[in-house]
Amino acid sequence: MSVIASDVNTQEGRTEVKNTTCYMCACRCGIRVTLRDGEVRYIQGNPEHPLNKGVICAKGASGIMKQYSPARLTKPLKRREGSERGAGDFEAISWDEAFGIMEERLAEIRKTDPKKFALFTGRDQMQALTGMFAKQFGTPNYAAHGGFCSVNMAAGMIYTIGGSFWEFGGPDLERSKLFVMIGTAEDHHSNPMKIAISKFKRDGGKFISINPVRTGYSAIADEWIPIKPGTDGALLLALINEIIKQGLYDRDFLTQYSNSAQLVNMDENSSEYGMFVRAEVPEEEGCFDPQNKLWWDRQLNRAVVTHTDGCDPRLLGSFMLEDGTPVKPAFQLLIDQVKEYTPDWAAGITGIPAETIRRLAYEMGVTARDQKIELPIAWTDVWGKEHETVTGSPVAFHAMRGLAAHSNGFHSIRALSILMSMLGTIDTPGGFRHKAPFPRPIPPCAKTPKGPEGVQPETPLAGMPLGWPADPDDLFVDDKGGPVRIDKAFSWEHPLSVHGLMHNVITNAWRGDPYPIDTLLIFMANMAWNSSMNTAEVRKMLNDKNEDGGYKIPYIIVCDAFQSEMTAFADLILPDTTYLERHDVMSMLDRPISEFDGPVDSVRIPVVPPKGECKPFQEVLIEMGSRLKLPAFTKDDGSRKFRDYPDFVINYETEPGSGIGFLAGWRGKGGEKFMKGEANPNQWQMYEKNNCVYQYHLPKSYQYMRNWNKGYLQWAKEHRLTRYDEPILIHIYSEVLQQFRLAAQGKTQGKQPPEHLRKRVETYFTPLPYYFEPLESQVTDKQKYPLNALTQRPMAMYHSWDSQNAWLRQIHTYNYLYMSPVLGQQQGFEDGDWVWAESMWGKVKAKCRFSEAVEPGTVWTWNAIGKAAGAWGLTPEANESKQGFLLNHVISEELPPSDDGDHVSNSDPVTGQAGWYDVRVRVYKAEVGDEGEEGVSFPQFDNYPTVPGQDLSMRKSWLGYFAGKGKK
Predict the structure, then answer these.
(1) Which of 53, 374, 607, 946 could form a disulfide with 18, with the two C-beta atoms 3.0–4.6 Å apart?
(2) Element (H or E) spanning 121, and its range?
(3) Cα–Cα distance between 909 and 911 in angstroms, integer?
(4) Distance between CA atoms of 944 and 591, rounded to whole angstroms?
(5) Phi-psi category of residue 247: left, alpha or beta, with phi > 0 → left and psi -120 to 50 → alpha
(6) Which has the closest alpha carbon to 941: 570, 523, 538, 522?
């Protein structure tokens, strides 16, 4: 490792400053780490990093406390023979023994039935590697955190505009005039968003926040509009209706760049009902949108092929083709769909006054229409038309998990995407802008296997573990329409579950539905605590046994850097490194840190050696891939291909001779190439010398309108970001969804849903968004449980990893249940009292805190601050376990039995997104005192003992340590 900023000797010792990439959260900022005599002394932002430009938050600055946490795991551990899962009784073993255990077990599974091995990962940043390992092993049972985080955001937007918020796109606040943020907590995109909002406000922009809770970003909004959770779709549909009614939509943008003018078959007796009519019907791959649809030309008064020169298509009306087929433009169908969604209707659902909704629609529409931005950038569209300028509508949106984590979230996000498109804000100045490798075709090309024949012993999976279905024939189901995956992703229960359903894995495996598994490997996911719905019951499932005395989930491997609630349930623990101890990549094959103006990827360089016997999970996968002789990890003779993870990153290619690997920068033998090129043995060193970042700036003419920009699409195809340079039209109307609906109606010849799911698919797979009440709310007694209950992550912490941080604990030592003071007045308790929050699934006891910054029908708390006693290296009496609490105990991963089945996931029926924010509760005073209940939170759990290798001496006076008086 080279020293970047300085390397000096002082009286206090040798001081070094090294650059790397932060991983306090998914923001992945650039940092500079100061070491003294090899120990971390402080962490600061790197001002030369393009993402955070030197800005650092509490999480990043306190990373030292993560490095020296008493929760650190430092040795491989095996559950002691005769001990019970959950007891936390382990013995230290060597890595050779740990690898031997895994090799023997996994080799047998791969030889007999690969799907009996399941690999599910939490907030890891290397899903391209973990997914590749699963594919090479041959198991379909792989997914990352997205299914319980924001899969609705990804799927809803990518199936509509070809890109999404977060890594793959965002608001262009540099040029925007009006910024509307919906359902976004304060840690999403953290530092870059803070930088952008502060400049936006200084430049005179107006910031509107629509959220049930006013914290974080919302606290500095010019206007806060509280909304009832789960009703965002109603608001967005009403805004669409009102913008249409006021004539404020961008007609030119819609006709040219979306499928709004394309004609839809309206013959209800036709097998093509609801599908676009085509000039010709060739075999379509389903990975791009052939330009063979029809418009109705107003001059010729007949159907013509889309984008015919001189054509002026109609967006409104009903027409008849020469063969007698009735048709309507897609936009007319949108008008028909939303005409009942008036502001008055939405007001009764959302709690937002109708006049506010009308004003919002007017403000958005007028700002987009009258404050156009025109940049002197010439570009050429895919139809060959040359443009002298790029024009933008300066209305920007941002939304995340608060909008996504509802069982109706997919259609809400489809509605948001359509609203943005109607205003002409897609990849334009001042609106939403894509980030490489997006935009991609709708849907993207990756596909899973089509059936159980894709899973074969000692053979890689015949498709991707995760994919993007284009029609029912892309589903991963058996001959009876049943799921092949343990989480039931890509089945008729959740067809477009592009990120999997991690929140259902343990329940399904415990039940043996659709089949039992043998080995579950969990990486970086606290499934026995804050990453599970129905936490207490899931913990029982992890420990439950069959009649023969064997565990229902026979073997559990957990890889993490910290002792946690989850590690106690492991049979084998693999101690991971921290972000300061390992090599890592934020890859263009996965989740890069691209900017609006072009691709950006980055690396982590170790600044300190691994603690104890810790080993990066990346190295574990390389080792196991080599031992199991998986094709991608071995040579033709079966010998090991890669020395270690850094060697893998340098030398791996997506296919032989592609020149494409995990890193885009400094490719070629001398580092002279980018995106594609031969392996460069000095690639890591070149990143290290360049702030650990590679940034490519696209030509100005490629930086906007990328869905339809000829130059950009050809560049993207050349550099393998896409397979095709065809236009990516916005899908106002979704044929993908309509094809599933036709199958459910029995009008297609391909795969058919099981009879008990036909109504479900027909109901939820509408080609245009619609509003329905969240599924859990529909089956909840709302008189008994009148309140919505939410969690959100605080800006200073990221899941449970940071709530055990010695410095950050001083900011959030335990969590309250926040609520309107009106609720306390109604129920007879005071600010700070102990209260019960009870749902139909369970109850928790917590201290309450009154706040005017919360929608009156909502209660909320910080997520993951509450801990089980003794977890995370904390003392059994720590505030986090005695006064902190976890709202997950009142949430369920399944809905009550219904016509859809006895065990239906509490998730969006389209994508499988976990319905975290759909639970309803009642709140009442807890009788704590001399004769009443104990003044501690509920539920409480047995104390977790420390495990071999934990260093409790890290519970020290850090003030004295940093004054130079402490001892290591």
Answers:
(1) 607
(2) strand 117-121
(3) 6
(4) 35
(5) left
(6) 538
Cα separations in angstroms, 100 against 97, 460, 627, 658 = 5, 22, 9, 34
Angle at 118 between CA 113 and CA 124, to 5 degrees: 150
What CA–CA distance (Å, rounded) separates 749 from 758? 15
Residues in contact with 855: Cβ distance below 8 Å, sequence separation at least 6, in sequence order:
212, 213, 226, 227, 228, 229, 351, 788, 820
pLDDT number for residue 818? 98
Task: Estimate the crossing angle of helix 617-627 against helix 95-112, to 10 degrees.
Answer: 50
Q: How far apart are CA 764 and CA 676, in angstroms?
A: 42
At 914, list the tokens: 């976990």
- Which token pair is 931? 């004769």
pLDDT by 10-residue block (mean), the chain, 968 residues = 42 73 75 92 91 89 91 97 94 98 98 98 84 97 86 96 93 97 80 92 96 92 97 98 97 97 96 93 74 95 95 97 96 98 98 98 98 97 96 96 95 98 98 96 95 97 96 97 97 96 96 97 94 94 95 97 96 96 92 92 94 96 97 94 96 93 95 94 95 95 98 96 94 98 95 96 98 97 97 83 86 94 94 97 97 96 93 93 96 91 94 96 90 88 94 73 54
Please report the sign of the dihedral spanned by the C-alpha atoms of residue 747, residue 751, residue 754, residue 756. negative
Task: Give the Cα separation of 650 and 661 in Å (integer).
Answer: 7
CB of 926 closer than 8 Å to CB of 935: no
DSSP 685: H
Give phi and psi for 475, each to the nearest 5.
Answer: -70, 150
3-state secondary structure (DSSP) of residue 698: coil
Cβ partners under 8 Å of residue 151, min gap 6: 404, 497, 498, 499, 908, 911, 912, 913
Q: Which DSSP helix (H) or strand (E) runs through 713?
A: helix 710-718
Query: By three-state DSSP, how is residue 239 classified?
Result: helix
Residue 914, beta-bridge partner list = 907
Task: Report which of 400, 389, 370, 399 is spatially closest to residue 429, judged by C-alpha positions.
Answer: 389
Question: Sign of the C-alpha dihedral, residues 254, 255, 258, 261?
Answer: positive
Query: How far lies 31's CA from each of 36, 56, 740, in Å?
Result: 16, 8, 47
Q: How many CB atoms lie within 10 A of CB 657?
A: 8
Amino acid of residue 97: E
DSSP string spanning 887-935? GGGG--SEEPPBTTBSSEESB-TTT--B-GGG-EEEEEE--BSSSSB-S
Element (H, E) at 627: helix 617-627
Alpha-carbon separation of residue 446 from 286, 375, 442, 465, 496 (angstroms) = 10, 35, 11, 9, 13
Name the region of 675 (left: φ>0; alpha: ψ -120 to 50; beta: rest).
Answer: left
Q: Are 924 and 827 in contact (CB under 8 A)?
A: yes
Strand, coil or helix: what is 592?
Answer: coil
Backbone angles phi, psi at 963, to 5 degrees: -85, 0
Q: Are 426 and 419 within 8 A, CB to CB?
A: no
Closest CA to 177 of 421, 363, 420, 427: 363
In DSSP notation, 735-774 reads: HHHHHHHHHHTT--SS----GGGHHHHHHH--SS------
- State both tokens at 692: 């650990």
Contact 233, 356 (CB under 8 A): no
Preceding omega of 856 cis (within 30 degrees of 0): no
Residue 40 contacts residue 33 (beta carbons within 8 Å): yes
